[in-house]
Amino acid sequence: MSPGPPPRQLRPRSKTGRIPMGCVRLFILPHVIIGIGVALVMLSKLLLVLIGTATPGTVESRTFSKGRKGRYSYHVHYSFRTDKSIHRGKTQIDGDFYDVLEERATVQVLYLGLAPDYISDILEPGESLPPNTWKAIIFGGFWNAILSPFVYLLYIKPWRRKRLVKTGEVGTGKVVARRIDHRGKGGPLFVVEYKYLALGQSYRGEEMTDESLYNAFPNGRRLSVIYDPKKPSRSVAVDLCDWEIVESSP
Questions:
Q1: What angle do CA 160, 240, 212 make, to 5 degrees?
Q2: Where are the alpha helices (DSSP H) in 52-132?
Q3: Of 6, 67, 84, 116, which one's alpha carbon is 20 to 30 angstroms from that of 109?
């Protein structure tokens, strides 16, 4: 059956012998949430440096806590006034600044005019950057650099492929090669290579599938291909991918 016109209704294809992607995404989700959090911290500190407004503030209180590894974290609670009202904030500082800082002391506060209740920080004497700015940038950049390939493979790429199956142009392809990749720790990977014609040119693609579909599509067998008309080299072999097209009722 040839895929119908877009937008197409899809349902997940049942596959055996493969690690459920939902489990992998669930495992990586907490790391993604942390990555978003540190990225927001990085962004807020950069916004304060670039477009923040400076004003005097007052130290309300100081607190510290001991972590599981025996390290101490030091925090200062502060308040500051804008033209409209009084705002409060909290930030983490280093131990040396904590030792010399006293309650009710006056400190310099940077705040974002659009959201003073949510984005503000104090400046240490003689400093032009809020505390821990470079630590946040280095940690956030490192964390998200490590995480970004997993986010692409587990979230962005599947979403793009699913969207392509729903909205792409239909073509016809032919299986030209097959291989079994034994390098993965989760068992062998069954890969089918195919060739298809799109907008008058020939392209090649490949689809990773399960053993039953791998055996059902020997070399030379024709299959349905959906490709991106704006970038014809992007394609999905519908007969082998993770989704099945649901035939719409008349």
A1: 145
A2: 95-100
A3: 67
The closest of 103, 109, 105 to 88, measured between CA atoms, is 109
Tell me, yes or no, if the two domains 32-142 and 168-250 fold the same way.
Answer: yes
CATH number for the domain running over 168-250:
2.40.50
Give a three-class secondary structure readout of 40-66. Answer: HHHHHHHHHHHHCEEEEEEEEEEEEEE
What value does the mean pLDDT of the chain take? 90
Strand order through the sheet with 120-123: 86-93, 72-81, 53-66, 106-111, 120-123
Q: Averaged over 105-119, what is the pLDDT?
A: 93
Q: How many CA atoms lie within 13 A of 163 on its CB side?
A: 8
- What are 139-172's pLDDT values in tens digits? 999 999 999 999 999 999 999 999 999 999 999 9
Residues 170-176 have a mean pLDDT of: 94
- Domain boundaries in the chain? 32-142, 168-250
CATH architecture of residue range(s) 32-142:
Beta Barrel (2.40)
Q: Are 95 and 72 in contact (CB under 8 A)?
A: yes
Residues 6+ apart with CB under 8 A from 73: 64, 65, 66, 67, 92
Q: In 82-188, which ranges are E strands? A: 86-93, 106-111, 120-123, 169-181
Amino acid letter, residue 110: L
- Residue that wins the pLDDT comparison between 160 and 131: 160
Which letter does DSSP use for residue 126 in this model? Answer: T
